[in-house]
Design goal:
The complex is a heterodimer of chains A (about 325) and B (about 260).
Chain A lengths: L1 E10 L2 E11 L4 E5 L6 H8 L7 E6 L2 E2 L4 H6 L1 E4 L11 H11 L4 H14 L15 H13 L5 E5 L7 H14 L4 E6 L2 H7 L2 E6 L2 E6 L1 H7 L4 E7 L6 H6 L4 E6 L5 E6 L6 H11 L3 E7 L3 H15 L6 H11 L5
Parallel strand pairs in A: 3-8, 3-9, 6-7, 7-8
Antiparallel strand pairs in A: 1-2, 1-4, 4-5, 9-10, 11-13, 11-14, 12-13
Chain B lengths: L2 H15 L1 H36 L7 H25 L1 H9 L1 H6 L5 H22 L2 H9 L4 H27 L4 H25 L3 H9 L2 H8 L5 H24 L4
The chains are: A alpha/beta (about 325), B mainly alpha (about 260).
């Protein structure tokens, strides 16, 4: 549904995107994950034909973004970082305006409008002037605007920014419900969001794709050891030392919680049985033994850091965050 | 509804809900009414003086005494007021980020610019038509030639159209409305002053070119009642040129 091949974007000397290639299948939800200024918005702007790429090819629904922009624009719903709203119009008027811009027939427009207003939860405010709405409602109006013409492809730039936790859960649910019938690309720098809503994650850093896979496979693929969390009732004096002596255990770290530790085990060896037998035989009183999987957050940090260390050697993930203000230079 | 008509309708609506339009409209109508009143009152005094000195009626008519100076004054008022009508056209879209919505919708830049231009032109022509009250009322109490009045209004419409196109271009270059207003005011002033520079250089090639580029000589002819194709060509081509540059400017945001 969406094909991006070897796309680069330069602003003068600054390279915002460097040879980016990825595909999105129909009905899939893809998350773009990256620190600020990584090139997420630039990629989205290229896909929506707002910006032309410097090199490479981008296609949406079989239409080239450079050659047939009108056909592409008909098939996408786009929610930019800042929702594009006219504060002096009411929600109804605004959605009618956008629907007509997207060339909906009057009868379809009326149906779609009431459907979308229900879908994003705007029914209590649909007759109010947008300028008087709270930030969360404005974000929803922005989302409604992207959905109004029922586009096969949705491109959402940080769709949950500015919403309260309850609204975030609602909007995530809404995005998930669109999977299958719609192809969705959303960008975020909130990792649990990518975990919660997406089939696939593309991690992008300083204009380059550093990883692309499902959230589960990303976290398992990068694991260098299996981690376990162990909690016991009454540990012996040197229980940590004795655990470390067990075969297959690489290291034992006490945690902030009392009587709890994290155990690093050799990759591919399931030590749960050995550990539980040992704890029971020593009479420590086994309370909890849980395998820990690497969170996407750790994956993200590892990837962006590793990239920096093997690359120029100067960059570090935290530097990248610190520089994000400067590197996020877009055309005015 | 086509995107052109959609944008046109929305623009007109935005004018009618914005205080800027009402302020500009009120100031324009008040000032033009006041000027018309002053000119008419002045005409009476002048007529008496003429009669005392020359004892002839030949030069005395309202076209000369009232309307010509009224049209020149209105031209001056437009220079200040029209940039305020046009300043929000694109600057506001960019400030509100709705520019992104428009350019990612299946709408051509041509449609976008023409809809915005036509909307502000309609608003202006509406205001202008209200000033026709002055000749209508005067015609009840006196007699004068209608033809120079009509060409005067053609001049005001064409002149305003050119100013609005300058304003639209200025608005497309920035996201700050105040900057847009000053920029279009500067552009209009510059085009005007080219005429002064032209007459300073006299009847040389450069002088003639500069005089042609300025709107003053074209406006002058129309206000005097001379309806010539070359003047209309000047205004139409100037307006189209400004809109064309605005098209390039809007398009260039994508290429920067």
């Amino acid at each position: 549904m969406i094909t991006v091949q070897h796309v680069s974007k330069h602003y003068g000397r600054h390279t915002a995107l460097d040879d980016v290639t990825f595909h999105v299948k129909q009905g899939e939800i893809l998350a773009f994950l990256g620190p600020n200024g990584a090139g997420k918005t630039t990629t989205m702007r290229i896909l929506t034909c707002f910006l032309p790429q410097s090199e490479g090819m981008a296609k949406v629904a079989g239409f080239d973004c450079l050659d047939e922009p009108i056909e592409v624009k008909r098939r996408i719903g786009y929610l930019p970082e800042t929702p594009p709203l006219y504060p002096e119009l009411t929600v109804d008027e605004y959605l009618t305006f956008v629907g007509r811009l997207k060339r909906l027939a009057p009868r379809t427009l009326a149906l779609r409008k009431s459907h979308v207003i229900d879908q994003v939860g705007l029914s209590s405010v649909h007759h109010r002037v947008i300028g008087h709405l709270s930030r969360g409602y404005r974000q929803r109006v922005g989302l409604a605007q992207a959905l109004i013409h029922d586009p096969p492809v949705l491109i959402l730039d940080e769709p949950t920014v500015g919403l309260d936790p309850k609204q975030i859960i609602e909007i995530r649910g809404l995005i998930k419900s669109l999977a299958g019938s719609h192809t969705v690309i959303l960008s975020t720098h909130i990792l649990p969001e990518a975990m919660a809503t997406c089939d696939r994650v593309v991690i992008i850093d300083r204009g380059r794709i550093v990883a692309e896979d499902s959230p589960d496979r990303l976290s398992s693929g990068l694991r260098q050891s299996e981690k376990m969390s162990l909690t016991v009732k009454q540990p012996g004096a040197d229980w940590l030392e004795r655990l470390r002596m067990l075969p297959g255990v690489l290291g034992v770290l006490p945690t902030a919680e009392p009587n709890t530790c994290t155990i690093d085990c050799q990759l591919g060896r399931d030590l749960r049985e050995t550990l539980s037998q040992f704890v029971v035989s020593q009479g420590y009183g086994l309370l909890e033994l849980t395998p820990l999987s690497l969170s996407l957050e750790e994956v993200f940090l590892q990837l962006t850091r590793r990239e920096g260390e093997t690359g120029t050697g100067e960059h570090h993930y935290r530097d990248a965050i610190g520089q994000s203000g400067q590197s996020e230079q877009r055309p005015a | 509804m086509t995107p052109f008509r959609t944008i046109l309708a929305k623009e007109l609506r935005c004018f009618f809900v914005s205080p800027v339009f009402y302020v500009v409209g009120a100031v324009f109508l008040f000032i033009s009414g006041l000027i018309a009143h002053l000119m008419t009152a002045n005409a009476g005094q002048q007529a008496v003086r003429f009669l005392q000195i020359q004892n002839t009626y030949a030069q005395l008519n309202l076209n000369e005494l009232v309307f010509r100076s009224l049209f020149y004054s209105l031209d001056f008022v437009l220079m200040f007021l029209l940039p305020i009508l046009t300043m929000r056209l694109f600057a506001e879209e960019r400030k509100l980020h709705t520019f992104e919505l428009l350019l990612t919708s299946p709408v051509g830049i041509n449609e976008l610019i023409s809809a915005k231009y036509i909307s502000v032109l309609l608003i202006y022509l509406g205001l202008l038509s209200l000033t026709s009250l002055t000749p209508i009322v005067l015609s009840l109490y006196s007699s004068f030639h209608w033809n120079p009045i009509l060409t005067g209004y053609v001049a005001l419409a064409l002149q305003g159209g050119l100013f609005l196109a300058c304003g639209l271009l200025a608005s497309a270059t920035t996201e700050n409305q105040v900057v847009a207003a000053f920029l279009s005011f500067g552009m209009i002033l510059l085009i005007w002053l080219l005429g002064g520079l032209g007459s300073l250089l006299g009847d040389t090639t450069i002088g003639n070119i500069l005089s042609y580029l300025s709107f003053s000589e074209h406006y002058d002819r129309l206000v005097r009642g001379l309806l010539e194709a070359k003047d209309i060509v000047y205004y139409v081509s100037g307006t189209v040129l400004m809109l064309f540059i605005a098209h390039r400017v809007v398009d260039s945001h994508r290429w920067s």
